[in-house]
Automatic annotation (TrEMBL):
Gene Ontology molecular-function annotations: ATP binding; ATP hydrolysis activity
Lineage of producing organism: Bacteria, Bacillati, Bacillota, Bacilli, Bacillales
Segments forming a coiled coil: none
CDD domains tied to this protein: ABC_DR_subfamily_A
Protein name: ABC transporter
Keyword Transmembrane helix on entry: no
Superkingdom, taxonomy of origin: Bacteria
Domain ABC transporter: 2-228
Keyword list, A-Z: ATP-binding, Nucleotide-binding, Transport
Length: 301
C-alpha cells in the first residue's frame, strides 16, 4: 500500500503539488488524469522517491520512500521520455538493471523477448523509434519484478497492438503477484479500460479521487418520454438531476443516485420511454465535477 499524506512540492516558490493525500492499495491500478502542468509528473516523481517532498510524506508499506533506498528498489518509475545510457543495447541495459534491482528475473527477461520481439537484442537503443524505446523500457521494468510500477504517459506513444499487449502484461502481473500500478495519461479511454481507481489533478491539487465502480454507480444517464409534462416536475422534486437535454418529446437526463432508486421513482409515472444508457468516464467526470463546482471539460481530452 502506498500512502501519500498531505504532499506538497514547491518549485521556485510555486506549488507544483499542493497538499495531496491519497492511498493506492496493493494490487490496484490507479489512473491519474489532468491538464498540462497540473502536477502529475511531479507527484509521480515524488512518490517514486526521485524528488524530496517539501511537506508531507509518501509511505510504502509504512516506510518513508525517499529515506529508504530499499523501498526505491521495489519500485520503478518510467518517464514519458525513456532514458538509456549512451550507446547501449537492451542486452547491455539488462546487465545494469540486474545489478541495480535485487528482484531482477532473468527468466522473465527471456520470456518477455517474445512479447517485445520487434526490439533487436544487440541494436543500440538510441537508434530505435520512440515507441520502440518505450517498449524497451517496459521490458526492462517488468523484468525487475517491481512491487510498484509508476508509469508517466508510457502507453500513449505505443501502437494499438503493442498497447493491448502491454495492458495484458500489466493485468497479468497485477493478477498473478499483486503488482501496484500508478499511471498518468491524457487518454481518458485508456484510463477507463485499465484502472480501478482514478484521480484528476488541476493546478497541483487532487480535485477528485474515487473508485471507478463507485463513480459509475453514483449517477446514471436515462432517456425518458413522459406521458404528462407535469410528471417531469414531479420527478425533479424527488431526484437530483445534474443535466438535461431534450430531443423532441424524449429527454436525456443525468441523474444522481442508484439505478434502483431512479427506476422506482420514474416508473411510478409510467413513461412512454424509459432507458438506462451507459455513461463514459468522460461524461461521469464532467457531471460529477460540474456538480462540485468545477468546469472539468477543458481538463479532459
Ligand atoms: N524541475 C522543475 N523545476 C521547476 N518547475 C518545475 C519542474 N518540474 C515541474 N515544474 C513545474 O511544476 C508544474 C507541474 O509540472 P508537471 O510536469 O508535474 O505537470 P504535468 O501534470 O505532468 O504536466 P504534463 O501533462 O504537461 O506533462 C508546472 O508548472 C511546471 O512548470
Amino acid at each position: 500500500m502506498i500512502e501519500i499524506k498531505q504532499l506538497t512540492k514547491i518549485f521556485e516558490g510555486e506549488r507544483a503539488v499542493d497538499d495531496v493525500s491519497l492511498t493506492v492499495h496493493k494490487g490496484s491500478i490507479f489512473g491519474l488524469l489532468g491538464s498540462n502542468g497540473a502536477g502529475k509528473t511531479t507527484l509521480l516523481k515524488t512518490v517514486a522517491g526521485i524528488y524530496r517532498a517539501d511537506r508531507g510524506q509518501v509511505l510504502l508499506e509504512g516506510q518513508p520512500i525517499y529515506e529508504h533506498p530499499g523501498s526505491k528498489q521495489r519500485m520503478i518509475f518510467l518517464a514519458d521520455q525513456p532514458y538509456f545510457f549512451a550507446q547501449t543495447s537492451i542486452k547491455q541495459m539488462a546487465v545494469f538493471y540486474r545489478a541495480m534491482y535485487p528482484n531482477w528475473d532473468e527468466q522473465r527477461f527471456q520470456q518477455l523477448a517474445q512479447a517485445f520481439k520487434t526490439i533487436p537484442l544487440k541494436r543500440k537503443l538510441h537508434r530505435l523509434s520512440k515507441g520502440m524505446q518505450r517498449q524497451a523500457s517496459l521490458w526492462l521494468a517488468l523484468s525487475c519484478k517491481p512491487d510498484v510500477l509508476i508509469l508517466d504517459e508510457p502507453i500513449d506513444g505505443l501502437d494499438p497492438v503493442m498497447r493491448r499487449q502491454v495492458k495484458n502484461l500489466l493485468f497479468q502481473e497485477v493478477a498473478d503477484r499483486e503488482l501496484t500500478v500508478i499511471i498518468s495519461s491524457h487518454n481518458l479511454r485508456e484510463i477507463e479500460d485499465m484502472c480501478d481507481h482514478v484521480g484528476i489533478m488541476h493546478q497541483g491539487r487532487l480535485l477528485i479521487e474515487k473508485e471507478l465502480d463507485d463513480l459509475k454507480a453514483a449517477s446514471h444517464k436515462i432517456q425518458i418520454a413522459f406521458r404528462d409534462p407535469r410528471h417531469e416536475q414531479a420527478i425533479s422534486g424527488l431526484l437530483e438531476i445534474l443535466h438535461k437535454e431534450e430531443r423532441g418529446s424524449v429527454g436525456t437526463y443525468i441523474i444522481k443516485g442508484t439505478v434502483e432508486r431512479i427506476t422506482e421513482v420514474i416508473q411510478a409515472y409510467q413513461p412512454y420511454v424509459f432507458d438506462v444508457l451507459p455513461m463514459t468516464l468522460e461524461e461521469i467526470f464532467i457531471y460529477e465535477m460540474g456538480d462540485a463546482g468545477y468546469d472539468v471539460q477543458p481538463l479532459l481530452l
